[in-house]
Protein 1
Amino acid sequence: MQNTSEIIRKLEEPFPAEDHKERPLKGGDRWFYIPWQKIRERLDQVCVWQDFYSDFTYSPDGQRCIVTCTIEIGGYKRQGIGSVPLVELSNTGKDCSRGEPEQRAVAAAFKAAAEQWGVARYLDDQAFVTRHLRKYHDGRPVAYARKNQNQYTMPRPQRLQSSNSGQISREEWLKLQRSN
């Protein structure tokens, strides 16, 4: 049986270029992601794992479906929350939801729990994704990388500065936004 640190090291490895998919962002940008099915395959390849889900809940305003996923590996558990709108609307106001909200919440919670194990965590650094994909002669992200990185990072607050780059990751930025 592998030790947990070896399992995590394998889970954290970047995915092959062909596994990365593009999602459009407002303003015409793109964000690269890994589909939950590929994340599940990575877990299957690397270790024995189990997932557990909470009961579905809905936000007090009735607009969001929420569920928690727990992934257990080697007796250790990590959790992620999936919170999705019941109806996703396009810029023109049309319903563009794909699947039932409960299915989307489960997929979001699963991806969030897997990220807690390190799976596809590198996606928060789209500049890294660009460099990674370019190694495999995949030029898709070149046009968006710089703009995405500038748009989804902000100057690092003095109390958080650990490097001279003056920027924080998208994940850190989102945490700061939630705390304000």
Note: The helical segments are 4-12, 36-46, 101-116, 126-135, 142-151, 170-179.
Protein 2
Amino acid sequence: MAKLTVLIVEDEALYADQLEMQIEEMGYASVGIASNALDALTLFHTASPDLILMDINLAGDTDGIQLAQKIQDTRETPIIFITSLTDNKTFERAVQTLPIAYLEKPLGKRKLQRTIELIVSRLNLKEEEPFDAWEQDILVKDQFFIKVRNRLEKVEIRAIDYVEVENRYCSLFTAQRKYVVRMALKDLIHRLPQDLFIQTHRSFMVNMKKINSLDLGESVLYIGEKGLPLGKSYREQVMKKLNFLA
């Protein structure tokens, strides 16, 4: 089960360990702790974290703000500054790197957790109008962050086998488990890649790469041993998408 991954950049070992413990208690995964820019960049490139918790005072010649700029020049990544520096000059420098949040030490677990959830929610905002119910079940680029109880779980879009409508909700099925999101299928369709997913029935969308076979006589398609309905009005589109040869 994939989890939101976090890189911790902090040169105070005790505080770094505390942050890592809090992150793991929240149900997220730490990719490691770095006390300086060089180690942080190495972890950033090897682990590709979803989020970075960044101190500003770091060991070495490069501070957290300079490091944040280097990271953002490589790949735009959400960064939360966690620092004891409260002066305007430092804050104005930090703002130039476009961080998601700027939090002052000491930082409580509840504030950190709520900040992370708000951050991931903001990442869903696009040019289009956001769907009102999509507040805690969040899509970010090529993955979902779905709220399961009190934590956000990462689900890669390519790992989804199919989507099924259940009343006002949609259920996402992977090989491992089922996830329920509070969104209508018509809204979810616009957030799934059209070159990968296709609607096969008024209540189903299917990952085309997961389809094993079609039974045209019974109007059923199979993902592994699971049979899913193929609606008459969707049949022609499905055949074209799959490059079906008669």
Note: Residues 124-138 have pLDDT under 50 and may be disordered.
Protein 3
Amino acid sequence: MPDELLDILDAKGNKTGRVKSRNLAHSDGSWHATVHIWMYNKKGEVLLQKRADNLYVYPGLWDISCAGHISAGQTPDGAAIRELSEELGIKIDPKLLKKVKIQKQKYRISGKPGFQNNELNHLYLFQFDGAVKELDFKDGEVGKVKFEPVDRFEKEVTDPILSKKFVPHNYYPLIISAIRAQLS
């Protein structure tokens, strides 16, 4: 599969007019954009995906319901719809997405030389009241998915030991609060 092309941004999220491959953007630390779609249900559960064991970054850890890069020339909503279809096999109307915020994340991963991630994450919520068995995650990026009560999820991501099974995102409290607001 060819390497995805990304619009390169400045640190404020403005397009610079440059386009780079995803691999090059990660190796040189160029700012780029992603979508993070957090799915929840009316029972107060959040859908988590376990990253496939063969992925280069954070293999085997629990993560966002669905996420991916925004391809060059693509809108955040368009990328969110694409990723939901590719990763979980669901097609939705973009009007069902609730934009939460654009969140900066900047990090390097020890043991992964040449990888620096400077992202502007477009955070979304999407209410999904279907069953896990309705999801089709055969693209190889997702190992499995599960619904977990928001309260348990919050306890686990804030616990120094249990949090090690999750991808370390800097905005978990924001997402938990946003899901609770949707449920109230």
Note: Residues 76-88 form the longest helix (13 residues).
